[in-house]
Amino acid sequence: MKDINEHNILTEIGQLLIEYRNTQNSSDRLLDYIKPGALSDELNLVKDTVGDWQAVYQWIEQYLQHSVRTGHPGFVNRMWAEPNLPSIIGEFVATVAQTSGCTYESAPVAVLIEKYMFATMLELAGFEHGEAQMTTGSSNANMIALLAARNNINQNFKQQGMRNSPELVAFVSADAHYSLDKAANVIGLGSDNLIKVPINAAGEMDPAELSALLIDATSKGQLPFFVCGTAGTTVRGAYDPIPALLMLREQYGFWLHIDAAWGGSAMLDPALRARFMPEVERVDSLTWDFHKMLGASLMCNILMFNSDQHHLSQSCGAGDGSYLFRETDADTIIDPGLSSLQCGRRVDALKWFLDWKFYGQQGLAKRVNRFLSLAKYIETKIQNSDVLELMAPRQSFNLCFRYNDNSTTNLDSLNQSLRTSLYQEGKSLVGMAWINDAMVLRWLSSNPNLSHASIDIFIEELESAGKELASSSMN
Ligand SMILES: Cc1ncc(COP(=O)(O)O)c(C=O)c1O
Questions:
Q1: pLDDT digits over 256-294, tens only?
Q2: Across the strands, what pairs with 286?
Q3: Which of the listed residues 79, 146, 179, 230 should we mutate to test ligand 1's pocket, taking the one with most ligand atoms within 8 A of CB?
Q4: How many other C-beta atoms are found inside a 10 Å radius of the C-beta of residue 468?
Q5: Regarding beta strands 301-305 and 168-173, do their DSSP bridges make them parallel or antiparallel, or are they unpaired?
Q6: How far is CA 94 from CA 6, 97, 111, 353, in A?
Q7: H-run or E-run covering 247
Q8: In this structure, which residue's CA is closest to atom 7 in ligand 1?
Q9: DSSP 8-state symbol, 199
């Protein structure tokens, strides 16, 4: 057994992490699945290990041993996978330094880096006089955008609440992320006033339906103040049509927010941007997660506002923070904490900065294009399979499909068992979702270790496990 003490623990853990990371891709199994009760017994979390560095090391060994290997090419479940190395370094350093990206005074480099990344990302989006904030993720960012749009209706809402408010209504597509429902609750809009706009066959918000709903709302005396289009929906990967939404904004004057948490990475490549997010430079706000397709370590997000009206600080700032914020450098440095809903703020900017500097826009754009071509590759494999069927036309980086060899009508249950068995055997973890009451397997292109070969294996394992399950269910 290694002698672990406070002097060598960081080095030893570092070694463990290097081994873990190096075997992610080559490791045979996605995880060694153990049922919760047995894992709980094995971990023995109640064990007393006060002052024991050896035990700290062992806890970490166990943690890694039983983790889902998100770098395994069978991990196609979520919008993120194994993180980038520069980003991991940024994460470590931010933790070791324990800086909070709240004030320049306490985190000078972090604040300057964050400001630099704001300016760089705003320029990339084409938000000429915009402002930005790194938040805890797109769920939070969607909520802040909704809050800013609400306060934009009436500057008194912030102080007086919504007592004298007209009946506000907001619109999202029926396929929008559930964080919008949470946001409607939190900001006092009420989820009944978040109107779900039907989607078309491609899974995009249907502008004609939105138009009809806007007419209906205004005829009832309601005030449509916010529309959220999604750039890359969670299940199908559809991009809502920004130009059509902009035309409706001209007519109704609502705030147009784009939830680009998943699909915003298309902005890195001019051709993809023109194809998926035309005229994005004209929307009012946009959220984009770097921890998803681009591989920054969780969490890493930016919320951008396309205006010089200080919506962020006006919406998020409140109360007396004079114990924290200094007037002195206000002309040159505006503390990010002033326009945040948080007080302490993780330094997420450092990891994104290091990724950006290391890979560059072109390198990241190349990655996004590669993900797209891998999505096309698996689409063809599914189309050519006798036992797999596409459940929605592919829009971008997501594939929704299921196993169906026509041997059973209970396809939901078969596909659920199929997914579970592949997971428990440590072969793959694919997402699941529902489309029109049918369960679908959702495959996402976000794992840097994906290749044609790994996709071939994934499909082979899926087909053979599906055949086995289907025949055993008939016996
Ligand atoms: C379209 C969309 N918006 C928002 C979110 C939430 O993002 P976060 O996990 O960063 O809060 C997701 C997450 O999957 C998403 O797919």
A1: 999 999 999 999 999 999 999 999 999 999 999 999 999
A2: 258, 304
A3: 179
A4: 12
A5: unpaired
A6: 20, 5, 12, 12
A7: helix 242-252
A8: 138
A9: B
- For residue 131, what pLDDT is reported? 95
Distance, CA of 372 to CA of 366 (rounded, Å): 10
Q: Is 375 left (phi over 0), alpha (psi -120 to 50) or beta?
A: alpha
> What six digits make up the tokens of 383?
């189309």
Sheet of 223-230, strand order: 131-133, 301-305, 285-289, 255-259, 223-230, 168-173, 194-197
Contacts of 182 (CB under 8 A, 6+ apart): 139, 143
Residue 199's DSSP bridge partners are 205
Tokens of 334: 């505006």
| Ligand 1 pocket residue status of 179, Cβ below 6 Å | yes
Q: Is 301 in the pocket of ligand 1 (CB under 6 A)?
A: yes
Listed in sequence order, the DSSP H helices in 66-107 are 85-97
CA 289 / ligand 1 centre spacing (Å): 8
Which residue ranges form the domains of the chain, and what is each CATH number? 9-69 (no CATH), 91-356 (3.40.640.10), 369-474 (3.90.1150.10)
Both tokens of residue 430?
Answer: 């694919």
Residues of the chain with pLDDT under 50: none
Q: Of 203, 205, 207, 183, whose CA–CA distance to 194 is shortest?
A: 183
Q: What is the pLDDT of residues 170-211, one digit of tens each?
A: 999 999 999 999 999 999 999 999 999 999 999 999 999 999
Tokens found for residue 139:
């769920």
Paired strand residues for 172: 196, 228
